[in-house]
Amino acid sequence: MINEFFNPVKELAKGLSIILKNGLKNRVTLKYPEEQEKVRNNFRGKIKYEKDKCIKCGNCIKVCPAAGCISINEYFSIDMSQCIFCGNCVEYCPVNALSHTVEYTLAQSKKDNLILKEEIYGND
Ligand code: SF4
Ligand code: SF4
Distances from the Cα of 26 to the Cαs of 21, 22, 30, 45, 69, in angstroms? Predict the structure, then answer.
């Protein structure tokens, strides 16, 4: 009978002590998107393409495991909705025309907006 009364009180006290203990710790979450976590310089984020360096060799297309992700026609394009951020295109580009940025907030309201085209980088 006594246990039936004290056990819930004990559990409540235990719960409150956990809340108080964690409430006094420094916050580990960020107020996203206003605050964003800094990533390392070698982070594989959004791909950057530099038209002036590109020799249109097509290596990036050959080494990309995501079929149809990169295309070179009238313009160079990368479909970031297909990209798996493996880094192959960056590594095998012979003239360093491709690089990873540290940008990781890529969400878009329209899928088409995830297709990065040459014009996006303002090289024209
Ligand atoms: S990072 Fe990988 S998946 Fe993404 S475009 Fe380059 S090769 Fe393709
Ligand atoms: S591998 Fe580099 S140089 Fe070759 S087409 Fe791709 S971006 Fe251009």
Answer: 11, 8, 11, 28, 42
Residue nearest to ligand 2 atom 2, measured at CA: 93
CATH number at residue 103: 3.30.70.3270
Domain residues for 71? 38-121
Which residue's CA is the nearest one to ligand 1's atom 8? 64
Question: Which pLDDT score, from 0 to 100, does residue 120 have?
Answer: 43
The tokens for 104 are 């990781």
Residue 7 placed within a domain: no
Contacts of 88 (CB under 8 A, 6+ apart): 60, 63, 64, 65
Q: Please, what is the average pLDDT of the chain?
A: 89
Residue 47: the pLDDT is 95
* 47-81: pLDDT as tens digits: 999 999 999 999 999 999 999 999 998 899 999 99
